[in-house]
Specification:
Elements (H helix, E strand, L loop, with lengths): L32 E2 H8 L3 H9 L5 E6 L2 E6 L1 H10 L32 H54 L10 H8 L1
Antiparallel strand pairs: 1-3, 2-3
């Protein structure tokens, strides 16, 4: 598939909604989940969860999963930390953070959309290419205008030279008999 036409592709079918208002299923007790799963379950940013794990505020263990080291937390410890921490709730039911800033991700009204990084980079590269092409087009137009001006000048000069040639053809020519012979003969003597 050509990456330039990524956005023109038909959209995949929408995933089926889960029972319970679209929230992920409740984690089973004692099970550890990744920080990304905890973010989706509790609405707390991964960076915040990582900070809590480093400070040992929540029950977290650094494990190697699929060759990558990552923090794994128990959902109960995150819920307990949220219940005892004085502060604002992570997200309201409207999908907006309490600070008034919109939550990350697509919005219901379609005014904001997350774009994959590689797609964004390709788009920026294409914009750069368009800008460069526009500059090249402007330079080409400027060269064409200069060439047109020079061609006009050369046409005028050619017309002048043809007129001069025609005038020279029109001048009366002196017959060779009228030329004094003495001049030539004196030269050869």
């Amino acid at each position: 598939m050509d990456p330039a036409f990524t956005w023109d592709q038909p959209k995949p079918a929408a995933p089926q909604r889960r029972a319970g208002g679209g929230r992920p299923p409740a984690p089973t007790p004692g099970r550890r989940i990744s920080l990304r799963e905890a973010e989706h379950s509790f609405g707390v940013a991964v960076a915040t969860l990582r900070t809590w794990a480093r400070k040992r505020s929540i029950d977290a263990v650094m494990l190697e999963v699929a060759g990558v080291r990552q923090w794994m937390v128990t959902p109960e410890s995150v819920a307990h930390h949220l219940s005892r921490s004085p502060g604002k709730p992570a997200r309201t039911s409207t999908g907006r953070k309490p600070s008034g800033r919109p939550a990350t991700g697509p919005t219901g009204d379609g005014t904001a959309m997350l774009v994959p990084r590689d797609a964004w980079d390709r788009l920026i590269d294409q914009l750069g290419n368009l800008h460069e092409t526009g500059l090249m087009l402007a330079e080409a137009r400027e060269r064409a205008a200069r060439a047109e001006t020079e061609a006009g000048f050369l046409r005028e000069r050619l017309a002048e030279m043809r007129l001069e040639r025609d005038e020279l053809k029109q001048r009366p020519t002196v017959a060779p008999a009228e030329i004094p012979r003495r001049r030539f003969l004196g030269f050869w003597r």
